[in-house]
């Protein structure tokens, strides 16, 4: 067939060469997020994971989770800082597995962008890989898709899925929670990856603030605060799974504290959480104060300073607090489980 100077794929806005360069740049970081069970490297059509290690389980259950980062990616794009958003993606994924008692094994990511800028894609993947290494799971594979016309050249979105494993008899959940159990709160690092549509509306649309605005209450710029990465709880919480008397955990994401705790307690109990046991970070007061947002709406949207909850016997709680302190996680007893109440979770008192 005779070659003719016609339309090319690049003319439509898609660059094969840029995609190849992005893969080359990210290879180093992906290699750092390996586990011994990973077979081969990146570049194949699918990632391979040797599951013969599961033979040591009596009844292994696979746990799976899929999620994205949401509109927090807008902050990363506007600040042109792309190597932290991966921590938000990994946090949303692996910490959903941990609440069931599952150990995250591997993760795959998906990046959709308007234009592949190799250095930017590699920076995103760098953050994902670093977070995977911190959480103890492998970055097994992923996909970068160029969507010109659908996304602007500077826009991108990230999503992923993860798989973990737990011994059937060690699964945590509502079936174990009993009256007399206590509730342990683990501090968040900030907004994490939820409520950014509200925060952006308050600060940008209503107040007209800029990301480079220094906010005295925060001790840094608004952009630096909003880009604070999600705290990863996977490894410390996996240690709690083996604490006798540990019954349930809850990842505090969209819906807020009460709604997420209600997902892991039975209808035969009620839970009372004492707000006076902690003081939310200044960013939460700022969202409410600047936007005149009612506390009910704040608590249904934001984590209010608590990123993860553990529920267990008083003895398990005492041991868990010691473990978390050793791992550098600020944690405290914030509530208790009582008989009756149809699974209602109530928030009492006021914040410190």
Query: What is the mean predicted local confidence, pLDDT?
Result: 92
CATH architecture of the largest domain: Alpha-Beta Complex
CA-based shape: globular
**What is the end-to-end distance?**
76 Å
The helix/strand class is: alpha+beta
Family: Belongs to the AIR synthase family.
GO cellular component, one term: cytosol
Domain PurM-like C-terminal: 178-345
Keywords: ATP-binding, Cytoplasm, Ligase, Nucleotide-binding, Purine biosynthesis
Task: Write a structural description.
The protein is an alpha+beta fold and 352 residues long. The chain has two domains: 14-170, 60s Ribosomal Protein L30, Chain: A, CATH 3.30.1330; 174-348, Alpha-Beta Complex (Phosphoribosyl-aminoimidazole Synthetase, Chain A, domain 2), CATH 3.90.650. The chain contains eleven helices and 14 strands. It has helices at 16-32, 72-79, 85-98, 118-135, 196-206, 222-226, 234-241, 256-262, 282-291, 295-301, 314-326; strands spanning 38-39, 48-49, 60-68, 103-113, 138-146, 156-167, 182-187, 214-215, 220-221, 246-251, 269-274, 306-312, 331-339, 345-348. The strands form four sheets. A six-stranded mixed sheet has the order 10-12-7-13-11-14, sandwiched between helices. A four-stranded mixed sheet has the order 3-6-4-5, with helices on one face. Strands 1-2 form a two-stranded antiparallel sheet. β4, α4 and β5 (138-146) form a beta-alpha-beta unit. The longest helix has 18 residues, at 118-135. The model has no long low-confidence stretch (mean pLDDT 92).
């Amino acid at each position: 067939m005779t070659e003719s100077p016609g339309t090319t794929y690049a003319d439509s806005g898609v660059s094969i060469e840029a995609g190849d360069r992005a893969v080359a740049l990210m290879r180093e970081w992906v290699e750092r997020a390996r586990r011994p069970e990973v077979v081969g490297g990146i570049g194949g059509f699918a990632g391979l994971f040797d599951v013969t290690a599961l033979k040591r389980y009596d009844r292994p259950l696979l746990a799976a989770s899929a999620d994205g980062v949401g509109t927090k990616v807008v902050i990363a794009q506007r600040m042109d800082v792309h190597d932290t958003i991966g921590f938000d993606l990994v946090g949303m994924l692996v910490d959903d597995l941990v609440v069931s008692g599952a150990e995250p094994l591997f993760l795959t990511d998906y990046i959709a962008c308007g234009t592949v800028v190799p250095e930017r894609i590699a920076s995103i993947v760098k953050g994902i890989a670093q977070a995977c290494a911190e959480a103890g799971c492998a970055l097994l594979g992923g996909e970068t898709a160029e969507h010109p016309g659908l996304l602007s050249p500077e826009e991108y979105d990230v999503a992923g899925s993860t798989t973990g494993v737990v011994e059937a008899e060690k699964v945590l959940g509502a079936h174990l929670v009993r009256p007399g159990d206590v509730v342990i709160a683990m501090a968040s690092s900030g907004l994490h990856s939820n409520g950014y549509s509200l925060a952006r509306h308050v600060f940008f649309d209503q107040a007209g603030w800029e990301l480079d605005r220094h906010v005295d209450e925060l001790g840094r710029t608004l952009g630096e605060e909003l880009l604070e990465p999600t705290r990863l709880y996977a490894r410390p919480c996996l240690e709690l799974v083996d604490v006798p008397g540990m019954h349930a955990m809850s990842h505090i994401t969209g819906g807020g504290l009460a709604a997420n705790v209600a997902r892991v307690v039975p209808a035969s109990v009620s839970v009372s959480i004492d707000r006076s046991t902690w003081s939310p970070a200044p960013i939460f007061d700022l969202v409410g104060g600047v936007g005149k947002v009612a506390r009910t709406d704040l608590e249904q949207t934001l984590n209010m300073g608590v990123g993860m909850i553990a529920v267990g016997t008083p003895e398990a709680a005492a041991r868990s607090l010691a473990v978390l302190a050793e791992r550098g996680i600020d944690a405290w007893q914030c509530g208790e489980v009582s008989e009756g109440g149809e699974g209602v979770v109530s928030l009492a008192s006021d914040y410190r």
